Amino acid sequence: MLIIEHPQDRRARRTQDAIIAAAVSLILEKGADAMTIRDITERADYNRGTFYLHFPGKPELLQFLLDDFLHGLGQAYAEPYSHLTEVDMSGLLPSTMPVFEYIEAHQDQFQALMTMHGDMALRINNVFRNYLTQEFILVTEDSEQVINYDIMLSYLVSATVGVIMHWAEVGFKYAAHYMGEQLTALINIKPTRLLIKPGQKGRTMHERMLSD
């Protein structure tokens, strides 16, 4: 069924988006605690009445920023599988690029959220883990080693979230497509040896850290 969006709804969404963009930019500039509703409305070029048409107050706006980001991330992760029954995990997963592209498109909002929530990695981990446990079943290759399913799930999700958080920490300096390719390679290509750098043999870990 074709749903036609009413022009008023589109205008309302544009206004809401402008308020959100103003709030995100202010959070990155001065922090969420210092930001006021007046700051937001002046930055977005709206009056306070318009703000209150969309959000009851500042706490509700900040909660919306978090919920909206995580909901969109979950959709980016799950939507590619909506019409599939099985996926070969040896190559690029259907969700990999959509997830990185979503984060890239919302990187300012993500960075703003990280300044407010020190547990963003855990929150993202929970989004992915919930979908994996509720919607999917992971099948492993035959092996003599007994693999604990929950530990395997934790390893795969943590690896993905770790790569995402590193990407954010370096300021999203790599393109989403590159990050997707790197994550796929990391999951499928395992290190085989650990080499000690010349001059490091015999030194304690504390001594090595002090010299770096």
What do these coordinates show?
The chain has 212 residues and is mainly α. The protein has 2 domains: 1-55, Orthogonal Bundle (Arc Repressor Mutant, subunit A); 58-188. 65% of the residues lie in helices and 0% in strands. It is built from 10 helices and no strands. It has helices at 7-30, 37-44, 48-54, 58-78, 96-105, 107-116, 120-135, 149-169, 176-188, 205-211. α1 (7-30) crosses α2 (37-44) and α4 packs across α7. It is globular and about 65 Å long. It holds the Pfam family TetR_C_8.
Number of contiguous helices: 10
Low-confidence spans: 1-6
Percent strand: under 5%
- Write down the domain tally: 2
Number of strands: 0
How does the major sheet shape up? Answer: none
Mean pLDDT: 88
Described by the principal axes of the CA atoms, the overall outline is globular
Alpha-beta classification:
mainly alpha
SSE order in H/E notation?
HHHHHHHHHH
Whole-angstrom Rg: 22 Å
Helix content: 55-70%
Distance between the termini: 61 Å
